[in-house]
Structure formats: C-alpha cells, structure tokens
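Review box. Two proteins, two foldings.
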Amino acid sequence: MARITASVYTSHVPAIGAALDLGKTGEPYWQKVFAGYEFSKTWMKENRPDVIFLVYNDHATAFSLELIPTFAIGTAAEFKPADEGWGPRPVPVVKGHPELASHIAQSVIQDDFDLTIVNKMDVDHGLTVPLSLVCGQVSEWPCPVIPFAVNVVQYPVPSGRRCFALGQAIRRAVESYDEPLKVQIWGTGGMSHQLQGARAGLINREWDNAFLDRLIADPAQLSQMPHIDYVREAGSEGIELVMWLIARGAMADVAGGAAPRVAHRFYHVPASNTAVGHLILEDA
C-alpha cells in the first residue's frame, strides 16, 4: 500500500519566488530567508517521495469570485505555472499523478468530504514557491505533485477542525491505494501577515512560534481554534494556517501511531511584510 512518510509546512510568499527568479537570493535582505531552506533541499534529495500531495490556496488565478470551491483536487496529468499578471514563473510544469489523485478523490468523497474535481487548471505561487524552496531551482520537479486547493480567501472558509479531519481522511485514502508509493503531504501559506487595512504589515512572532509548538505537540487541540483568533492574532491572511492542519491531520500519531520526528524547524521575519515559517515532520 501507499504510505505518508512526512509532512512539510512552509510559507508561500510571492516575493520569495520573485527573489529566486530574479537572482536576488544572495542579497542581505533575502540571505537569512533562504538559509532556512538549505537543510530542506538536502533533506529532500535524501528523502525524495514518489508523490507530493500539496495543500495550497489559489490566488484568483485558477478560480475567481465567480467560482469558489472550498476544497479542490487536481486530477490532471500536468499543471502549468500560472500568469499572475507579470508572466508565469520560469519553473517546470508540474506533473500530476492522475491515478492516485482520482483514488484520493473517490475515497475522500465516500468519506463524506465534498471535493471539487479539477481536470484542468494552472497553479500559482501558492504551489510553485514551496516547491522552489524545498526542491531548489531545477529543470524538472523531483516527483509528481497532486495540487489540493483550499479556499482561505473568500469567507466562509473551512474551520481548522474540518481541515484536521480532512487530513485524516486523506491518510486513509493514501493507505488504501494499492501501490507501494511514498507520499509526502505539504501544508502551505501563512504565517502571520496582513496585506491591507489599518493593520497592514502585522506580524506576531510570539503567536507564530506558539502555533508551531502546538502544531507539533497538540494538533487536535489546535484544530479547535476559531477563525477569529487567527484573524485577531495573525492578521487577515493568517487564516491560511488552517491548511497546515490538513497536512498535520494526515500524520501517523493522529491515527494512533508514534509521534513524528521534527527533522527541521525554521522561522524568520520579515519577508515582504510576512513572517516565514517552515517545518518538516517525519513519520516514525
């Protein structure tokens, strides 16, 4: 059977992608940000999965206010980098895994989660920036990727509790797939940031690090946090962190197994008015 071997968590700041693409990673402002991912790039080479299930949010490229799926799974054979207004990022086309994606959709929908099945879409920085950070600037991504888009842009958005339970359903789906695949599940977005309004530029270091502590040690309790706490403490865009709970819900300890091993933890501010968080958890 297939199995989830690790979960990876990272911010997906668009300016990070621009810094990579424009050769600015060595500039003083960006050096500390990218230094936090040097371990991860080595780790990825040593722990390359067969498939990455990548949870992210679309930023009005594949979807608009005309159509807002709460949860959408990409089942296509490939996904092109989106043009977000200044041309597509110069990164490889994302190769999908239609067989596993379709199996997960079947299993999760039968497990009473309503998913939107997407057979054609472009993927934006929410997905490609995490891949660039952990996989490096490559001519081809190291494995197929299943995009899983979550609406955290237009209210109402799913609760942390719902996302955590969805992660558990995704784990069950993966483990029922009849092929010995190693699967990583990634949760992206966050951490604290607000891009508009009177609190634009808000960053809450203490809250962010407490979130990381709780995500590692007590994710079930963390999943009960109401939306208003995310908005109050982490800014209007801090709600993206519910996507991390999908990845955390898919880990073995939540299903009664051993606690995961913390392979890497990193936090830095600022990166384009955003706090950058990063975590790698390995299943025992």
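Next protein.
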Amino acid sequence: MVMPAMGMPAAPTFSVDTFILAEKKKLPVYQSDYLDKTENSVARGDVKEQQIKVDNELAAFWKDSVKQADLYIYYTGKAAELENNEKNLTFAAQLILQSLKGESDAGKKGWKAEQAIGLFNQAIELDPNNDDLKVGLGSCYVFGKGMAGDPQETMKGVMQLLSVVQRDSTNMKAQMVLGIGGVISTQYDKAIDRLTTVVKNQPNNLEAISWLADAYAGKGDKANAIKWYEITKRMVNDPEYSKEIDQRIKLLQ
C-alpha cells in the first residue's frame, strides 16, 4: 500500500533523456551499439511507421534484455501515441498508471503521470463515452502529482471521477479512487463513505480496505482504524506486512 504524501513540495522535474543516457552507460558495448543502430535506423519514406517499429523494438529491448521497466513503458507509450489506436493507447496508459501507483520517486511519479494522462486523453478522443478511460485519467491525477502534494491535481482527478459516478454510482473503480482522493486531500468523512461503499460491494478488495483503515486513522477514529488494519493483516497473511501494520497501529495507540 502506498501512503499519501501530505504537504510535500512540488515534485522535482525528471528528464527522460538524461535517464536514458545514464542507463545506456551501464550497458556492455554490444548492447549500447545495438541501441545506437536502432535509434538511428529511421530513414526516408514512411517515417511514422518506421518510428513506431523502432519504438516497439526499443521497448522490447529494455524489457527483455535489460529488465528496465521504466524505459519499457516509456517506449510502449511512444509507439501507442504514434499508432493512435484505442486498444494500444489504453494498454500503454494502464501500464504506465500501474507503474505510477507504485512509484516512490517524486520526479518519476510526475513524469509517469504526464505520460499516462496524455495517452488516456488521446484514447478518450477516440472513445468519448468510455468510463474506464475516464477513471484511468482521473486516477493519474490522484496517484500522480496529487499524491505528491498538489491539491489542484487531486481535484482535477476528482472532477473526472465524479463525472463517471454521477452517471453510474455502481462504478466501484471510480468510487474507490474518489475515496483515495479523499484520504489524500484529508477529506476523511467523504473518503470513508466512498471506501465503505466499495468494501460492501467488494469485501475482498484489499486496496480499498487498506485505504479505509488509513481514512479512519487520519480522522482520528483509532478503533475503526485498528479494526480495518487487522483485517488487512489477515488478508495478506505475511509476517513483514503484519510487522509494518503493527507499527502503524502502535503509533495510533
């Protein structure tokens, strides 16, 4: 579970070009040469199709040969952006969103959020009534710069998500991210209402239960916070996780 970062300064900038250069320096010569050759292989003719092919090859290289996930998702996103195909845009956007949710580096978090936001917006242009895409877009604002301490970004996400639940209150994905947004923005009562709705409908949703415990802890309701933290311990059933939660409970008591 990723805890919200309260009152943090604006996320530092992140340069993907600098990052790529740094990662290249770690490679043996034959891999570095392969990258140079691939990156410079776009010639005259159908430049767009060639660039899509190159981006996909670079994505595969960083994923399979180096196990560098951040550059895999970066080039996957670049290829999808050029292809402008809803399926590929959605795949790349969701891939980056999942990575973003677990990102601890503030600079990378903002960078990944911007990538995913662009891809989700591009997909929404192709399918304006797709609620899953709108939930994804709203999630990028909440889990990205919103979680890094920018309340305006959180609100952008909340407004996107509200547009979904106002039409369909049974959309539990939207309700959950709204609840998480409530925890991040310290609107604990609203967060508890949203997350309780999700838990009632999805009693095995560990993420929702974890954030519900955090919401009660933030509100100062120690009894309910401990109750839900204990439930997460039983669900996860892992000594290291239990140790972390016990520390959190200890701070409440």
